[in-house]
Amino acid sequence: MATLRERRTYRDQVLRVLYEAVEGNRLLGITGAQLRRDLHVPEQDLAAACTYLAGEGLITVDWEPGNTPAMVTLTHQGIRNMEAEEEEQG
């Protein structure tokens, strides 16, 4: 099981990779397989990160059987959070 620090890192990485991949467009998403390839995150930890982020209203997830993310997209709130973070960084 991942530590709290690892779980937070996975969540941040999912949001960042998703935001960069879709360039802030809510109509675009990426597959769970692409997220796994890009992040090198264990499947169980990726599912947990996606479940958490979906619960926070930052992403939406279409699930495959076996609790695997099939398609992941940012919500409006998720885009706003990422844009605010981008503005803070400069």
TrEMBL record:
Domain of life: Bacteria
The protein's name in its UniProt record: Uncharacterized protein
Organism: Streptomyces avidinii
Taxonomic path: Bacteria, Bacillati, Actinomycetota, Actinomycetes, Kitasatosporales
